[in-house]
Amino acid sequence: MNNKKIYFLLTAVLVAGFFFNSCKKEKQSSIPSLFTYGTWRLTSIQEATYLGGSRLTLDTIPINTIQTFAFNDDRTCAYTNFDDKEDTVNGTWALSDTQLYLFANITFPYTTTAKTNQPFINSHIISLGEFSMVIEAGDIQTYYSPTDSRTIRTYGFVRIKPDGTQ
């Protein structure tokens, strides 16, 4: 009789374990936290022009001031000194469902050297890590004709640690 109680208890524990482990888990991702921990400092800009799929030119754009991109947990963001102009422009940000695209709705009061007033409205995340981020912006559509003239800018950032961290 004692063995029956042990087997019953063991079976109940196994059934309970299967029940709790089979519940649907929430989607958990560390990608948003990579954006929001600290501020990103711009370190490089490259601009490539294409005709269809053929690259025609690749230029490095000089950076003359400290430019930063900050993302907040409440999905707001701010860019400081874009195009070497001393100003800060605020907006909102989101990630695509695949988390491969950044949508930063920052609207500058002028047309930037990227030939738009919203240079990060649809950006392709090339690389994102703890200390660096590379995004492409511009004419990054997936499908284009062989006669389409396109310009793509690649922005490289490094993380600036928040104050008080080691």
Strand and helix layout:
Layout lengths: L1 H20 L9 H6 L2 E13 L2 E7 L7 E4 L4 E5 L7 E8 L5 E6 L16 E6 L3 E7 L10 E12 L6
Antiparallel strand pairs: 1-2, 1-3, 1-9, 3-4, 4-5, 5-6, 6-7, 7-8, 8-9
Describe this structure in words.
With 166 residues, the chain is an alpha+beta fold. It has one domain (31-160): Lipocalin. Helix content is 16%, strand content 41%. The chain has helices at 2-21, 31-36, and strands spanning 39-51, 54-60, 68-71, 76-80, 88-95, 101-106, 123-128, 132-138, 149-160.
In short:
The protein is an alpha+beta fold.
Summary tags:
166 residues, alpha+beta, Lipocalin, 8-stranded antiparallel beta barrel, 9 strands, 41% strand
Mean pLDDT: 87
CATH class: Mainly Beta
Question: Termini distance?
Answer: 61 Å
CATH topology name, in short, is Lipocalin
Rg result: 24 Å
What is the overall silhouette? elongated
Beta-strand content? 35-45%
Order of strands across the biggest sheet? 1-3-4-5-6-7-8-9
Sequence stretches where pLDDT stays below 50 over 5 or more residues: none
Q: What is the architecture at the second tier of CATH?
A: Beta Barrel
Order of helices and strands: HHEEEEEEEEE
Main pleated-sheet profile: 8 strands, antiparallel, barrel
Kindly state the percentage of residues in helix: 10-25%
Category from helices, strands and their pairing: alpha+beta
Count of discrete structural domains: 1
Number of helices, where a helix is a run of at least 4 consecutive DSSP H or I residues: 2
Q: How many DSSP-defined strands?
A: 9
